[in-house]
Amino acid sequence: MGRLTRDRLTAILMLLPSLVALGIFVYGFIGQTAYVSLTNWGRDAAQALALRPELTFVGFENYTRLFTGFLETRFRQDLVNLFFFTVFFLVGTLGLGLLLAILLDQNVKGEGFFRTVFLFPFALSFVVTGTVWRWMLQARGGVNLLPTYVGLPAGEFEWLTTRAQVWRFDWNQIPAMTALLVAAVLLLLAWRAWASARRIRAATMVVLGALLAAWSFTGGQSVALLPFPETRGFNLALIGIVLAAVWQMSGYTMALYLASLRGIPEELREAARVDGAGEYQIYRFVVFPLLGPITLSAMIILGHISLKIFDLIFAMTGPDLSTTSVPAVLMYLRAFRGNQFADGAAIAMVLLVLVATIIIPYLLISLRGEVRR
Fold this sequence. Notes:
Elements (H helix, E strand, L loop, with lengths): L1 H36 L7 H4 L12 H8 L4 H32 L6 H9 L6 H11 L28 E6 L3 H23 L3 H21 L10 E5 L2 H26 L2 H9 L4 H12 L1 H16 L3 H7 L9 H11 L3 H32 L1
Antiparallel strand pairs: 1-2
Helix pairs in contact: 1-15, 4-9, 4-12, 6-9, 6-13, 7-8, 9-12, 10-11, 12-15, 14-15
């Protein structure tokens, strides 16, 4: 008993410096940022850079202004840009990485060479990638000149500067869209719980919550964020940003998928072939279901990267081009250029919440899986 107590005390003492540093430099600073976001720091230019600024607590006024203020149109478009960037980045990176992994899994000649080539972009920083792709996507050069090598006229698409938009919608529809998305997720969870036949009561509650959420924002009441319609959409200038990001990170997902494919026992494929399954059916019913956990892990990591994307956009288009801006870029402008620290802190907290909505469920699922083992 005494030995156990000494071992536990030793472990606590060994972990204590790291816990203290973590508490101060991570959670302490998060708490400080949250407090600053609830103040008016930066509204008064004389107080912005004062040694001891006089801060006034304003509650959630900064957040309300960001989402409903007449002058905060860039922040709202930045959120839309971030959403579309995240969707296309995840789909492109996972899809291309899976395709490359499947091709390399066919025991092609020179596999080591191709694997190195595909992984090389991942070794670069986003700043280097952004600089190279900025040169390639110039409106009067780069890829727009490729058709001229086969006798065709040069391309005219303004990759990084176009202001054209597609898939436009009214910002006031965001509450209804969010409610429907939450309802869809809850219904999916309810279906999985119901299928397990072990949590019928929980599944029923989830279904009722999903239906209530959908009804409250679509049929029961209408929530308008703005007193006027405000149209948002997908800026086509983001296509170049997505291409650069997918090019850099697809090698990473390729490595994950290739390791998973090599870890699948060959006996499973042979058994499927004995049952008469073709290669397409083997991948659909045997291989792809086994890749589910690694796909989830890759989605979490890539989603975390996409929500905090800053350096790639800064290197490709700079911080002042609003068509390719995201909340992280706007946070930099507000906090470190405009000295509007409260607004910058509020944007930072919005990003923290977005990242937490991805990371926390993944951690909970992982911890539950470890407990069950």
